[in-house]
Amino acid sequence: MRRIMSLLLLAVLMSCTRPDIPASPIAQAPTPTAPPVRPTDAPLPPIQAPMPTTNTEVAFTEYEQQLIMLYQQASQAVVSIDVVVDQSANLPPGHPPISPDGPTGQGSGFLFDTQGHIVTNHHVIDGASQIQVRFANGATVVADLIGSDPDSDLAVIKVTSLPEGMRPLPLADSRLVQVGQTAVAIGSPFGQPNTLTVGVISGLGRTLRGPSRSFGSFSLPNVIQTDAAINPGNSGGPLLNLRGEVIGVNTAISVSLGGSSFEGVGYAVSAQTVARVVPALIMYGRYDHPWLGISMTTIDTLFANRFGLPVNRGVLIGVVQADSPAGVVGLRGGTREATYRGLPVLLGGDIILACDDVPIFSSDQLIGLLDQYQVGDQVVLTIQRDGEQMQVTVTLAARP
């Protein structure tokens, strides 16, 4: 009986609450319990310290090994270039000459042949009074300018001695380059010699704005685009494939307004252009580019609809230079001024539809095609004039 009374008293106490102490969510929360062990849970493996290896090859992937071998072989043929530019020509009359006490510019280059010819950019050595080459082993030597071509932004310098075992870099056939393949740049960005960066080929057949003449500007065609990091000081250095062959010469970068550093888009003069221009620079000191002698505007559907043109592709001739190859055969330029996208255009001229039966879709494409010819070559242009198509044979002359 006493046990029954004790149980009843305990039940009453557990059902009572004090009116002066309100219940709280925390007080009402259930007591936490450990989560149940699921049948699929497996015990964690014991922590093990990494084991050192004496074989360095095991530590690298096949791709890394390829890059290491490429760098070890190719970097020996890549040089840093220091230039001294005489500023006296820019001084006002009567001003005493200023002698630079050190380099005023810097770039890169690579050995082209066993005779000591080194390829770099025209803009690296433009205006230089002294050129110094620094080899991969740190040795320096003065170089002589052999030839330079602003229209391809290529130049050749020569040294009289080379480090033992230094071998030239082979040129690839850049016509076989594909978007997506690996691209390796070696040079001296910001003066840091023998720097390797890796990316891919991002685009082909690009065109860069080139030097200007009194009657207009020219373009650098067939340029390779890459996302391999290129910065000031990389100019003139090689862009390589994984076989260590030169597919281009690093020449420019795209930058935002006010910028100067790499932002993901770099450009290289193609090896195809190098193979054509550099031997002429070595032999003659210059290269003659073929010239048609016209200014032109790309025609697309929007442009054609805007001005009521009879075709929606090709290039519209604006100005024909006097005594140029185009002028000699009677190609016609524009006669009416207009504005398109805020820029002036000339309407009424001939429209080039094809070059040697290759359909033309843009001015960049036509410039790239013409650049593959030699001075004195003939090309057949298909043109649209006054609602009719005709063919005109033009003999290409040297660009003035």
Automatic annotation (TrEMBL):
EC assignment: 1.3.1.74
What is this enzyme's class at the first EC digit?
oxidoreductase
Q: Where is the PDZ domain?
A: 290-387
What are this entry's molecular-function GO terms?
Answer: 2-alkenal reductase [NAD(P)H] activity; serine-type endopeptidase activity
Going by the UniProt record, its keywords in alphabetical order are:
Hydrolase, Oxidoreductase, Protease, Signal
Output the GO biological process annotations, alphabetical, semicolon-separated: proteolysis
One Pfam family of this chain:
Trypsin_2
Q: Would you indicate the residue range of the signal peptide?
A: 1-22
Q: Which domain of life is it from?
A: Bacteria
Q: What is this protein called?
A: 2-alkenal reductase
